[in-house]
Design goal:
Shape: globular
Mean pLDDT: 84
Low-confidence stretches: none
Radius of gyration: 22 Å
Order of helices and strands: HHHHHHHHHHHHHHHHHHHHHHHH
Number of helices: 24
Structural class: mainly alpha
Amino acid sequence: MNMIGTFWSLVPPFVAIALALVTKEVYSSLFIGILIGGLFFSGFSFSGTVSHVFQDGIVASLSDSYNVGILVFLVALGTIVAMTNKAGGSAAFGKWAKTHIKSKMGAQIATVVLGILIFIDDYFNCLTVGSVMRPVTDRHGVAREKLAYLIDSTAAPICIIAPVSSWAAAVSGFVDGEDGFRLFLKAIPYNFYALFTIIAVFAFIMADIKFGPMKKFEEREVHYEEKEKYTSTKGKVFDLIFPIAALIVLCIIGMIYSGGFFEKGEGHNGVIDAFSNSDASVGLMLGSMGTLIVTVIAFTIRRVIKFSELMNCIVDGFKAMVPAILILTLAWTLKGMTDSLGAKEFVAGVVQSGASNLLSLLPAIIFVIAGFLAFATGTSWGTFGILIPIVVSVFNETDYTMMIISISACMAGAVAGDHCSPISDTTIMASAGAECEHVNHVSSQLPYVLVVAAVSFVCYIIAGFAKSPFLPFLMGTAGIISGVFLFKKNSK
């Protein structure tokens, strides 16, 4: 029985996701999904399964240059966080925050605002916001699961509407025969899921709305113990702000460097083109390693911590990132299994066969398909790569406005599906940044995502007929705010 290029190609990720949600154990669930993918690919051959799972799967994932760059970035960032903790920078920021952030609502709003400001890359966003705000939210009794939701809701949704980001570069690269960056800019007002997620986060915080599994996590009495030991009493807020500022600046420089900004002659690109052609993995790796070096130099010059203790932070940083690295490796491998089984080709064929029918409803249909695919595969960028070229081919030179709306629906659906998926790298990063159980984060975030996704789906139906972002945006915003007030009234 040939399972390649059929519905069976989506079974491995669905099994892994279902097991993770039921058993609350993500490592074994992912591996079982990988194993099923290997069995399907090899035709249930023992030797073929072993070879495909380990050699073509795990080893190939860990030897992929893009993945290795992300792992280096994770270790470097974990080391930088460990250094700022040891140097007392985090403790100093905690004391500052204690006098300036005096409420649970204030701690949550500060987390969201910081997440909005760090729009360069979702990985960078998740881990930076988590490391900076976790002590503050812990002090005010914000559940780690809620922190993970706030981080996740201001990572990909911000990056997908920020023109200067790794996501804008990725989307622009998938649009053949068109000005990808110009299309990205025009698609921003139609990116309802991203826009409504940000609106909903503020509304949920200010109205103190909690429902689903999140309500259980928020209402329990938990005291989070501070794990890090601060060996320096010389630490200042500067010792936290400086590494973060350096990381932002150097990651931006690293990304435009990878896009050819510093090349001479024909290879030179302007800032916008450099971002469009950038490699996020290379840029983040170079930026994080550069930040690690300047942080060591700065802390050594200021003598807030011994050089030997700074070097010990490399091991501490790696240890802190081991759970995230392990989950990422398994998630990448599972994605490789679905790719080898022809999941992309199967979904692309389904979309193309029905693309000519119900054109006005196509944005809403694409939104659902993109969410379904991103949920199953755990990758937004892979979803872009499958669906955006199909959208361009359907509407190219026929209906430019519908092409923009449909591309935006693809991006929005991919982010929504990515938000729901336990095997999404961004979701994994949000859990790592908040230091909460990964499955708890997924299960508690899911109802919030589905509410915003449902509103977005209706707005894409309206946009397909109105061909304007203003009416659906106003109706969606009114729907979310009205729903929040209604829920608040009923809960009382």
